[in-house]
Design a protein that fits this description.
The protein is built from 17 helices and 14 strands. The chain is of the alpha+beta class and 536 residues long.
């Protein structure tokens, strides 16, 4: 099927050809033996003028005009036959069939063939006896005119219609390839984009999703397309409603921070771009959503901020510890001398001073650990062996309090690169916290696993669980829920973990007891041993 521009070009040059033929006949009409010839010729001229008007000023479809040209030429020849039944005019009825063949319209061509066949049958039956005898002069006139018409049509077709048709066909082929390429690239982009892409109808039903959407949100295409599903937590409903209102007014939102909801109910941080989709009439027909999961990026940013804060604290701690310990050494010496004096009348006060000075020294020592954890002396370390050593360190207390401590080894032995004493300090601090939290007869569990080139150590106990508001302050310096504690143990622990390229997180969803996970990047992995358990 041809496009409108190609049909219009053919219509234009066929009307011109038809007009030339009618014009030649109009000039020759005074020389015809039949004066009544002037009537169909004049009618043909008026018909041509009407076609010109429709072609240039009318809003009629070009396909309809092509049908009018073909059938108009047929009726024009038929009218000439009824005026003067000359046998050679029957050959002129083949011209509308030829014209119909010029258009790539099989319906027009078949219709013209059937119509002409019926016409010839009727003409032979109705006008057969009235056909004029054919003379040589008439044959020469008719066939000369036929020759002129054929040559005129060939000229216009070869000079005008042919090159233009070829140009249009080439343009059509190029456009078709371009469109197919664009569609192919768009399909590839949609299917292989790393960001989740979804298209919604105006009534918020999903029309299309890409594989990244399925992976990010947990919904399969067949589960969600054609349905309205919840992709945001209830806390975002009000903001989403406002955004929807602006979207329908034609506004777009680019890289806005939002909370998104997976099928399994978990919430993740994301950057979303939402925009209306317009049709060719510039009307909004759908809405697009592009989502990028930024959870890992935010975690990295938070870890970076934490590391900066801890480094700043460490620098301050080093200065404070140095400045405090020097004068405290002198004060502590004089207080001890006073306590050794049997005639000291202020013993009660000096003993309190001595205990408080010991507490100051304890804090100063922790400051020094915080400021300069000994991570410069690094080597390859088996973390699981380090944990076993820490468990053995607390063996007597565990046995006395009847606390069951279990260690589940990872599937494969692995090592990390770091300072052994510092890593040992991490697990000593964590073990102390768990033992202080559990009651006698309780349990502590270390569960190790290999996840994404990292060794993950999950420490859980069945002791007293923490209140939700504590989690936001637990790594803040001097924050503690224990009497007599400095509030620096977990701060030191986190700094050591971060200095080793790891991470530490508490499980905020755990209701009974406490659970935290420490991860370190693996230095080497030995795929040999299976899962094992050591119970104490």
């Amino acid at each position: 099927m041809e496009n409108g521009q190609c049909i219009q070009s053919k219509n234009k040059y066929l009307i011109i050809s038809f007009s030339i033929i009618v014009f030649v006949q109009l000039i020759a009409s005074p020389f015809f033996a039949q004066p009544s010839y002037i009537l169909p010729i004049a009618a043909g001229a008026l018909f041509n003028l009407s076609l010109f008007g429709l072609l240039h000023y009318g809003k009629l479809d070009q396909k309809i005009i092509s049908w009018l040209i073909v059938f108009g030429s047929n009726f024009y020849i038929l009218s000439l036959l009824f005026i003067n039944a000359d046998f050679p005019y029957l050959f002129f009825l083949l011209f509308p069939i030829i014209l119909s063949h010029l258009y790539s319209d099989k319906y027009l061509h078949v219709t013209m063939l059937v119509f002409t066949t019926i016409e010839l049958t009727v003409l032979f039956k109705v006008l057969g006896p009235y056909f004029n005898p054919v003379t040589d002069a008439k044959m020469v006139i008719h066939y000369s005119f036929l020759f002129v018409i054929i040559m005129s049509l060939l000229f216009f077709f070869s000079v005008k219609i042919g090159p233009q048709m070829k140009k249009l066909l080439v343009e059509k082929e190029v456009m078709s390839k371009t469109l197919s390429s664009k569609e192919g690239y768009l399909d590839l982009f949609f299917e292989h984009a790393q960001d989740a892409i979804a298209v919604f109808s105006l009534d918020e039903k999903l029309l299309a999703v890409n594989p990244a959407f399925e992976e990010m949100y947990g919904w399969k295409k067949e589960e969600c397309v054609g349905k309205s599903i919840q992709l945001t937590p209830p806390s975002e409903f009000e903001r989403i409603a406002d955004r929807q209102k602006y979207l329908l007014q034609g506004r777009s939102f680019k890289n806005i921070r939002s909370k998104e909801l997976r099928k399994n109910g978990t919430v993740f941080e994301a950057e979303t771009t939402v925009a209306p989709i317009y049709d060719k009439n510039n009307e909004i027909v759908a809405l697009s959503l592009i989502t990028r999961d930024i959870t890992e990026r935010l975690q990295a940013e938070r870890m970076k901020i934490e590391a900066i804060k801890l480094n700043a604290i460490g620098e301050i701690a080093a200065t404070v510890a140095h400045e405090v310990r020097n004068p405290m050494t002198s004060v502590n010496g004089f207080v001890q001398l006073m306590n050794e004096d049997p005639e000291n009348p202020y013993r009660a006060y000096t003993e309190i001073m001595e205990s408080e000075i010991e507490r100051i020294n304890l804090i100063a020592n922790e400051f020094l650990i915080l400021s300069k954890p000994n991570i410069k002396k690094r080597k390859e370390i088996d973390v699981e062996n380090t944990i076993i050593g820490v468990i053995e360190l607390f063996h007597s207390e565990l046995k006395m309090r009847q606390i069951n401590c279990s260690l589940f080894l990872a599937e494969y032995p692995s090592t990390v690169f770091g300072n052994e004493e510092s890593l040992k300090q991490v697990f000593i601090n964590l073990m102390k916290n768990s033992m202080e939290a559990v009651q006698d007869g309780g349990s502590i569990t270390f569960f190790n696993s290999i996840i994404n080139n990292s060794i993950s150590i999950t420490l859980s106990d069945n002791g007293q669980s923490m209140e939700p508001e504590i989690f936001s302050q637990i790594f803040m310096p001097f924050f503690t829920t224990k009497e007599g504690a400095t509030g620096l143990g977990l701060v030191i622990t986190k700094k050591i973990v971060l200095d080793h390229g790891g991470n530490i997180e508490f499980n905020r969803l755990r209701k009974n007891g406490t659970e935290l996970t420490v991860t370190f990047p693996i230095y080497s992995l030995h795929r040999s041993n299976g899962l094992a358990k050591i119970a104490d």
